[in-house]
Specification:
GO cellular component, one term: cytosol
Pathway: Carbohydrate degradation; glycolysis; D-glyceraldehyde 3-phosphate and glycerone phosphate from D-glucose: step 2/4; Carbohydrate biosynthesis; gluconeogenesis
Keywords: Cytoplasm, Gluconeogenesis, Glycolysis, Isomerase
Number of strands: 12
Shape: globular
Helix content: 40-55%
Main location: cytoplasm
CATH class of the largest domain: Alpha Beta
Largest sheet: 5 strands, mixed
Strand order of the largest sheet: 1-12-11-7-10
Structural class: alpha/beta
CATH architecture of the largest domain: 3-Layer(aba) Sandwich
Number of helices: 19
Organism: Halanaerobium congolense
CATH topology of the largest domain: Rossmann fold
Radius of gyration: 24 Å
């Protein structure tokens, strides 16, 4: 086995089957075999769409060699000039950045200089809560802060409002003529307001491919720049994605775990498992679950199918964390409605074992812990939860991660992106648009008086008013 093969993710689907969780709630191998041709057709459609340039995320492991060189050179040039690197973005322009940072770097990266190894602190400001924004800016030295503004359109209200604040913050400290040195724009190459602003201010620019949507963009400069600026090996991230891509392209159904799981998620949904729980038993992978929530919800939650029929489909993604949520959500998962499929992320080899010291051997409820490790404990708790779910006839599965590093993280991102595309095909919906999100954005534009959105402002002003007697 090669080193890469030893780091391959493995999907254990035993616990989705009736043999483990009973006939009422479990699937059968025969059901998957019967639906296999439908899944293979979905697979073929995805590969054909990629050939037509419609699956941009599938190109990313292979077409960014020059971009990666530029990103690395930029990080090397700027890391000693700035103490802080602040990402201004939201949704797909933030969640992947956070997931990479949490997974790869020291949990206390921002707190201690030795943890940063010469790289700047990273802050991802992904909301417009005024208290949070003010608290961050009060801690930053504008002369030592580099901002990365991420917006494909350059009109994302949340991102661009923060940019306007950051621009004034910097200009007041270094002068209007030097503003551009403190900003990097990540945006569309050929259109939008941000590319125009970047040219005016002489900002450095990186581009988001037009055929890659925000929630699929973590392996573009959207996610790769902040990764490079914090010392993450971005080539290994893409190498992991390329490794998983080769697996995902296989048309041998049972050798393609993302294809198999795309079908399992679809069949589980048809069987009433309308909630998809991701539960990493790893602090490093906790924010992958946040990233997955957007990917799954925004891709699969759709009002109409491809024929325009109203279908209102979409499984609801839920984030949990093992072992923490054994003490909060697990009660619901064990005894609540049979409406969930749970995906555990299990780390087989932690970077640290950390032995539990022995003491109080005379106390039966405590002495047994000594001599074991925390790595043993967290994985034993995962196995115990899995067994308890099986006993309660609850559908669950495990994605085994040999260890958490850039190569396996790249695999993880690509695995779930491809799985999402498969499930979208099976649901016969467009998994790559987000009309519901756009509607909310348009109302915001109208209420704020943006040109061209008067109709939305009128709708808001003429909408039903809340009754005072129903505000308790």
């Amino acid at each position: 086995m090669s080193e890469k093969d030893n780091l391959r993710l493995k999907l254990d689907i035993n616990n989705v089957f009736a043999e483990m969780i009973g006939d009422e709630h479990g699937l059968t191998v025969e059901e998957l075999e019967e639906a296999k041709e439908e899944a293979l057709k979905a697979h073929q459609n995805i590969l054909e769409a990629e050939t037509d340039g419609k699956m941009g995320f599938m190109e990313l492991p292979y077409n960014q060699e020059e971009i990666v060189k530029e990103l690395k050179a930029t990080a090397e040039e700027l890391k000693d000039k700035f103490d802080n690197f602040v990402v201004l973005g939201i949704g797909g322009s933030a969640l992947g950045n956070i997931a990479v940072q949490t997974a790869i770097n020291d949990p206390h990266y921002n707190l201690f200089e030795e943890a940063r190894n010469g790289y700047p602190r990273l802050f991802v400001n992904d909301n417009v809560d005024p208290e949070g924004i003010k608290a961050l800016f009060e801690k930053l030295d504008p002369k030592k802060t580099l901002f990365n503004v991420i917006s494909k359109s350059g009109s994302t209200a949340e991102t661009m409002s923060q940019f306007l604040l950051a621009r004034k913050f910097v200009a007041d400290a270094v002068g209007e003529e030097n503003v551009g040195e403190h900003f990097i724009a990540t945006t569309s190459k050929d259109s939008g307001y941000l590319i125009e602003i970047a040219a005016r201010e002489n900002m450095k620019k990186f581009f988001i491919p037009d055929n890659v949507g925000g929630r699929f963009s973590v392996l573009t400069p959207v996610g790769l720049l902040s990764a490079a600026m914090t010392g993450v090996d971005i080539e290994k991230l893409l190498d992991g994605a390329a490794y998983m891509d080769k697996i995902c392209r296989q048309d041998d159904f049972w050798k393609n775990p993302a294809l198999v799981n795309g079908l399992i998620q679809y069949l589980a949904y048809q069987k009433g498992k309308v909630m998809s729980v991701m539960m990493p038993y790893s602090d490093r992978l906790r924010d992958v679950a946040d990233w997955y929530r957007q990917l799954w919800a925004e891709s699969l939650g759709k009002e109409v199918d491809r024929q325009g029929n109203k279908v209102n489909v979409g499984p609801t993604p839920i984030k949990a964390l093992g072992a923490t949520d054994q003490h909060s959500q697990a009660q619901l998962y064990m005894e609540g409605p049979f409406d969930k499929i749970i995906t555990f992320l299990e780390v087989e080899n932690f970077a640290e074992e950390l032995e539990i010291p022995g003491a109080y051997e005379d106390l039966a409820g405590l002495g047994y812990l000594g001599g074991h490790s925390f790595a043993e404990l967290i994985n034993t708790e995962k196995w115990a939860t899995e067994l308890a779910l099986n006993k309660r006839n609850r559908m669950n599965q495990t994605l085994k991660v040999p260890e958490v590093n850039e190569f396996t993280l790249g695999q993880l991102f690509y695995f779930f992106e491809f799985q999402t595309a498969v499930t979208g095909e099976l649901l016969d919906i467009n998994a790559f648009n987000q009309p519901g999100v756009e509607l909310g954005k348009n109302y915001t534009y109208g209420i704020f008086g943006r040109d061209g959105y008067q109709e939305k402002k009128d709708e808001y002003e003429n909408s039903a008013k809340h009754k005072d007697d129903l505000i308790l």
